[in-house]
Amino acid sequence: MSPDVDGKGPVVGLDDPSWRPALERVLAGEGLAVVAQPIIDVAHARVGGYELLSRFTGPPSASPDVWFAAARRHGLDGELTACTVRAMHALVADRPQATFWTMNVEPHLLPLPVVREAVCGHGRLDEVVVELTEHVEAEDDAALEEVLTEIRALGGRIAMDDAGTGYSGLSQMLSLRPDVVKLDRSLVTGLDRDPVRRTVVRLLGDLSGQMDAWLLAEGVETRAELAELVDLGVPLVQGWAVGRPAPGWPALDDLTRTFLREQVARSRVGAHVLTLVRPARVRAAVDWEAGACADEDVLVDGRGRPTAVVGPGPDGTLHRLPALVVAPSAAPADVLTRAMARPAGLQHAPVVCTDARGRVLGTVSIAGLVDDLVGGRSAGLEVAR
């Protein structure tokens, strides 16, 4: 098992003799805690499930991945995985109704009797997702397949971690036929600014849909990434933008719930530029004069109406660029035509979208307009069952 990395303090070398007694203390029931990170059901703007993650109080002071690496070095990784899985099973009865929960297990450990018993020895697994991480590749595919068959027979589901990178390639997806496909965070980071990443997400989403699998984007850290994932039709999201790991069962805050509902409503509008709008920071003229503005900020007047967009000029430094303002119902093709008709140096500046009262709804990137017109959004994603 290898939960996310967020440890603090110096890391003790894996060969340090202090690791063995530290690991044995955890196996005896001391120094292990479990936290939960919410997984959001986008369409309904609610918590659909939780990923359970282990935390170790130490000493040594180290992140969970280091603890599991030390356990592997000292031949205790199977026992430590089983210990954490049992701790998770002991907590889940108190989670909110109508939610699933996920655990991370290394594929090479899952066939071990102690791990298999910890995962499968608690009866039905109807609300459980076993997420296969890939730090060590499984050596016995037949033994792994046998355990996966048992998990599914008990009602459990299988998730494939880090889809699109490393060992989790297309061949693994096709052979495993997972129930949940987790997008690697490297595909999510900067998604709103990178048409190539958007294309990859669409392809993985389409393949997941053909396998009747859920697509889950992890590592979502910004509202702009979240908005792009909603627009792409990704049904499940997870990350700091929607909820951090915490003790208990974290809920979705009201501001994020409202934001999600607005984004979902926009994504259903149809062939309007509103479906391409990304969140934008709205700043006043004094912010510009104080040097407090960043790229793609929208400058507004005293009535909140846009006057300029901050963007790089021909010299590479940030400038106040005249704002091209469009209505939410404008056709993307028309907006792109107007944007390209601007003087050289302004053609790639973001377009500002406003509501009927002239208030800023957000910006539309030129890359997003081009991406839309070459068929990106017409293809759609059939990822939700």
TrEMBL record:
One of its GO terms (molecular function) is cyclic-guanylate-specific phosphodiesterase activity. PROSITE patterns: EAL. Transmembrane segments: none annotated. Residues 16-259 form the EAL domain. It holds the Pfam family EAL. InterPro entries: Cyclic-di-GMP_PDE-like, EAL_dom, EAL_sf. This is EAL domain-containing protein.
